[in-house]
């Protein structure tokens, strides 16, 4: 049982599973070996390590560095004003209000971190050993660790992106806005993209009693992650759950109504879907469109 638990910990792509055991039962990951090598190289003398990324990866890196015996300056840079928080619930329990948007990650002990939140790392001067910040500041470093995540992809058509209600689901603030829109009980939600995030959103919508349509360009949902056979099985499960699943389809454009709010989604075959809410998730992206809003983002964590 311990062996199975330990293997599950290392298999989890976002390290959402944590376990403490007396001794490791599987070989350390390459990331842990790299961290140990970093400790051997630089921990003997005082130094400053700067971590770009103040989410799960950045916090885990900080904990590992302290566990390896590093006692020097440790700076974490994050573009959001919030301390590290768990992102996967933002497309699940947060949307159905079983959890609040405050999914802050626990920090069991004082890591003595110099937090630089709300100021993204913009550039790096490798010769000078300096990090340039988006707010015009700069930080010198002895070692620099990049632990950033992905960015939300904006809707590619600027005129449509400017329609009232275009939202981004990438972080805590976007999840709060999306949660409020879903709580208004839209008549229909259209999800663009049948990946994990899209299916999670569809599940939340059905749980809330909302009509929902998934538009997916692949022949089966979640094909990249699950493969053709399991994806085909999941298509049956999704439809049995009451989701209108449209495969081999793609969105051509988003139409606005008289009040400059989202009114419909037009597919490439000319099909028009009138909707109160359209949510879509493509390859590591999340789009949510509705009457009266659209949200577009990435799979957080995932």
Describe this structure in words.
The chain is α/β, with parallel strands linked by helices and 302 residues long. It has 2 domains: 2-146, FAD/NAD(P)-binding domain (3-Layer(bba) Sandwich); 158-297, FAD/NAD(P)-binding domain (3-Layer(bba) Sandwich). The chain contains 7 helices and 17 strands. It has helices at 2-11, 30-42, 56-67, 158-161, 172-183, 196-207, 223-240, and strands at 48-52, 73-78, 114-117, 121-125, 130-133, 138-140, 143-146, 166-167, 188-192, 211-216, 244-247, 251-256, 262-267, 272-274, 277-280, 286-290, 294-297. The strands form 4 sheets. Strands 8, 9, 10, 11, 15, 16 and 17 form a 7-stranded mixed beta sheet that branches. A 4-stranded parallel beta sheet has the order 3-2-1-7, covered by helices on one side. A 3-stranded antiparallel beta sheet has the order 4-5-6, with no helix packed on it. β1 (48-52), α3 (56-67) and β2 form a beta-alpha-beta unit. It starts with a helix and ends in a 5-residue tail after the last strand.
């Amino acid at each position: 049982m311990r062996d199975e638990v330990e293997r599950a910990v290392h298999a989890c792509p976002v390290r959402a599973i944590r376990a403490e055991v007396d001794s490791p039962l599987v070989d350390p990951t390459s990331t842990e070996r790299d961290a140990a090598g970093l400790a051997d190289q630089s921990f003997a003398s005082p130094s400053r390590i700067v971590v770009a990324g103040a989410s799960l990866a950045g916090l885990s890196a900080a904990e590992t560095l302290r566990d390896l015996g590093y006692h020097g300056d440790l700076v974490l840079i994050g573009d959001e004003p919030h301390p590290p928080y768990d992102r996967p619930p933002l497309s699940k329990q947060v949307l159905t209000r079983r959890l609040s948007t405050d999914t802050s990650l626990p920090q069991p002990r004082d890591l003595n971190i110099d937090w630089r939140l709300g100021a993204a790392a913009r550039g790096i001067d490798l010769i000078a050993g300096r990090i340039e910040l988006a707010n015009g500041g700069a930080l010198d470093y002895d070692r620099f660790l990049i632990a950033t995540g992905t960015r939300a992809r904006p809707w590619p058509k600027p005129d449509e992106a400017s329609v009232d209600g275009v939202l981004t689901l990438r972080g805590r603030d976007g999840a709060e806005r999306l949660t409020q829109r879903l709580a208004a009980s839209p008549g229909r939600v259209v999800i663009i993209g049948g990946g994990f995030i899209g299916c999670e959103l569809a599940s939340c919508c059905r749980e809330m009693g909302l009509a929902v349509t998934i538009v997916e360009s692949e022949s089966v949902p979640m094909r990249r992650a699950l493969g053709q056979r399991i994806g085909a099985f999941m298509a049956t499960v999704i439809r049995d759950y009451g989701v209108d699943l449209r495969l081999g389809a793609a969105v051509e454009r988003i139409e606005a109504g008289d009040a400059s709010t989202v009114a419909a989604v037009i597919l490439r075959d000319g099909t028009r879907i009138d909707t109160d809410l359209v949510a879509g998730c493509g390859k590591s992206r999340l789009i949510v469109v509705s009457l009266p809003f659209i949200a577009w983002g990435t799979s957080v964590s995932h």
